[in-house]
Amino acid sequence: MTITNKLGLYLHIPFCTRKCRYCDFLSFSCNDNKIFSEYANALMQEIRIKSENWHYREVDSVYIGGGTPSLLSEWDIGKIVDCLKDNFNITEDAEITIEANPATLSDEKMERYLRKGINRLSIGIQSFDNNMLGILGRIHNKNDAFYSLQRAKKAGFENINLDIMFGIPGQTMKMWKDTVRQCIFLRPSHISLYSLQIEEGTEFYKMIYEDGQLEPIPEAADREMYHAALKMMKHAGYEHYEISNGALPGYRSRHNIKYWSYEEYIGMGLGASSFVDGSRFKNCEKMYDYISAIKENTAPIDAGSVESYTEREEMGIFVFTGLRKTDGINLSDFRKTFKEDFFSVYDNTILNKYKGMLILDGDRLYLSERGMDISNKIMMEFI
C-alpha cells in the first residue's frame, strides 16, 4: 500500500465540566486548572516525542477534540498550538479546529484561538430546546447556544460547525425541526447532525434499559427526523457530503474527510488513535500510564493496541469508511491503493442485493439516501 496524503493531527482533551448522559467517550468531569495545565504540559511533551518520527511530513489539518477542550485556559491552548507549529511541518493553509461547549466559550478564548491560528470552531449545541438540553445533561441553555455562534462570528471566525442531535427521548418532530430551523437561521458554515446512540455504561443506558425512566425514540421516527433535516439543509444550500454532515460550499471538514478517505493521522493525548505508516495504534487510556510514559520521555502508546491488519482487512476499512461519504468511493482509488480491481476482491452480487441503495455509477460506488438508512448493514458486507 502506498499512502502519500498529508497528515492530520488529533489532540484529545479528556476533561468536561460534567459528563453528558449519553456520552461514552474517554472523558471525565474535572474543573481543576492545575490539572488542566499539567495535562497541557504532558501533551506538549508528547508532541515533541512524536514529531521526532514524523516532523518531515506535511500536516494540513489539526483537530483538538474531547471532552471539552474549551475548558482549558486560552493560554494553555495557545501554548499547545505553538508547540505543534514548532515541532510539526504544518502548512500555512492548515485547517485547525477546536471543539467547544457554549457555556465555556468566552470572547477572550476565541480571540486567543484566532491569534494562534485556530481557524475552525466546532460548537456542541445539540438542541435549541431547553427541555431536551436538560434531558441530555448539557451544561448550557438555548440562549448560550444562540449567542455563542453570534459571538464567534463577531470575533472573526468564518468556519464554524454546529453539532445537533436527534432521536432524543421525548423529542417530537416539531422540536427537532425547530432546532434545525434555528441552526440554519444562524448560518454556520457546517452542520453535523447525529442520531442519539444509547451506549452501554452511560447514564442514558441505565435510565432507559435498567430503570425505565425514559422511552427510546422508535427507529421509524428517528429516520423521519434524519430525512426531514437533510431536506431542510439542502433547501438552505448545505451540501450533504457525509452521512452525518452538511456544509456550505467550500466548508467541508478537511480533517474528518481524512478518516473517511483512508488518509493518515496521528493522535496525541489520552486514548488518542493513530493510523500512520500502515499501522494502527492507540495511546494509553489511563491517566497514570499516560503521564508515566511522558515522564520517561517515551510515546504513551498502549502496546496491546498496536495492530497491523491484513491487506484484505485494510480493503474493508477503505470501503467501510469511504461509503460514509455521499460521493462514496472511487474504484480507481481502490486500484491505486491496493493494486487490485475492486470486483476481483468483492462479489458484485452485493449490488443486486442492495439494488437502489448501493449504486455503481461508472467508477464510483456510493449509498443512496435510502441506503444510508441501513448503512452499517451494507458496509459490513465488505468487512
In oligomeric terms, what are we looking at? single chain
Total of DSSP H or I helical runs spanning 4+ residues = 16
Global geometry: globular
| Proportion in helices | 40-55%
Total beta-strand segments: 16
Mean pLDDT: 94
Question: Taking strands numbered 1, 2, ... along the chain, how are they ordered across the largest sheet?
Answer: 9-10-8-7-6-5-4-1-11
Write the layout of secondary structure elements.
Blueprint: E1 7-13, E2 15-16, E3 28-29, H1 33-54, E4 58-66, H2 74-87, E5 89-100, H3 107-116, E6 120-126, H4 130-136, H5 142-155, E7 159-166, H6 173-186, E8 190-195, H7 203-210, H8 219-235, E9 239-242, E10 245-247, H9 254-260, E11 265-269, E12 273-276, E13 279-282, H10 287-295, H11 311-322, E14 329-330, H12 331-338, H13 342-345, H14 349-353, E15 358-361, E16 364-367, H15 369-373, H16 375-379
Parallel strand pairs: 1-4, 1-11, 2-3, 4-5, 5-6, 6-7, 7-8
Antiparallel strand pairs: 8-10, 9-10, 12-13, 14-16, 15-16
Helix pairs in contact: 1-2, 2-3, 6-8
Description:
This protein has helices spanning 33-54, 74-87, 107-116, 130-136, 142-155, 173-186, 203-210, 219-235, 254-260, 287-295, 311-322, 331-338, 342-345, 349-353, 369-373, 375-379; strands spanning 7-13, 15-16, 28-29, 58-66, 89-100, 120-126, 159-166, 190-195, 239-242, 245-247, 265-269, 273-276, 279-282, 329-330, 358-361, 364-367. The protein is of the alpha/beta class and 383 residues long. Helix 1 packs parallel to helix 2.
